[in-house]
Amino acid sequence: MVNPPGGALAVGNNSDADPFVTNSSHGQSQPHRYSSFDGNLFSLYSTNSPSQAKRALQAHLKDTDRRIQDASKLGTTLLQQRKDLSERLKEVEKHQNENEIGPELRAKLAELEKEYNEVGRESAKAFIPKSKASGNDGAGSTAGPSVLSSEAQASPSKVSVPSRKQRNQPSNRVHDIEFATEISTSLLSQVRNLQALLSERDEELKASNLERSRLETDAEGFAQRLRALNESEQRHKDENWNLETQLHELIAASKESADKEQRLTQNLVAKRAEHASAQREIDELKQAHGKLGEDHTSFKKQHELEISGLRRNITSGETERETLQSKIDELTSQNQELAKAVAYRFQKDEQSGSRDVASENEDVI
Predict the structure, then answer these.
(1) Among 26, 123, 249, 328, whose CB has the most other CB atoms within 10 angstroms?
(2) Are the CB atoms for 19 and 4 separated by under 8 Å?
(3) Which residue intervals make up region (Disordered) (predicted)?
């Protein structure tokens, strides 16, 4: 048995298996984790054209994205179905003691069973490869001899080679070795081209993932900013409403103030008229008071003149009084002396009369 050249990729885990022979005993026992390549697209790899390989990889990438979206939708559907199943289970537990299920609950359970079967079929379509989903047609046929190491999927090119029994025949041994060498060389060149394309595609995917992360970060920032703007808008609406309310209140207060100002203006005009009338009265009173002051001044001067004359008269009267008093005192003293003289003379006359009477009495005796 001739060993394949270095770099050839084997499919099975059995080291004795021939990588160039399709054998049902060494076929895949487990389905691929990812979706299988389209054989029509990967048959283009035999042309060694990078553009065709790129188109095939892009088609596979689109198909993978579609399957991711389907899986996401399926996950949402499964979560909703799980929620519905939990709700129906609770309803059934509530009716556990009853002998029969009500018609409404039976209809809901039938509808839920129908949805469950539909979701099961969708799950099978999403997770089972096309070759398995189409009736397991590949079970009886031969599997692909090689797979891409990075995707663990079917080989991009299917090679029709003779069986081990035919290759072990001596007549075809050299031809089989040359044919296997050519196939290995072709496969190696295709694998290298695919690896280069995959590396380039990985770089593009990394760049796109970085750009996607940046865009997601920007989108999250924009979403936060939008939420902040919405909150700010709502806050500004509330503030605007408060300001409008305050504005209406201020307008009402302004109207009330204007009415009050008008009333105060009217009162002020009336008060000014009253003030002017009072001022005229005050002026008239001032004039009358001035006139009375002048009369009072003239009367005061006249009174002072009269008082001065009276004072002079009083002074002259006092002088005359003192003169008369001195004369009265002098006359009084003269009267006293005269009275004393009269009294003394009268007393003397009485004494002389009494002696005359006594003498006469004596004469009578």
Answers:
(1) 26
(2) yes
(3) 1-35, 128-174
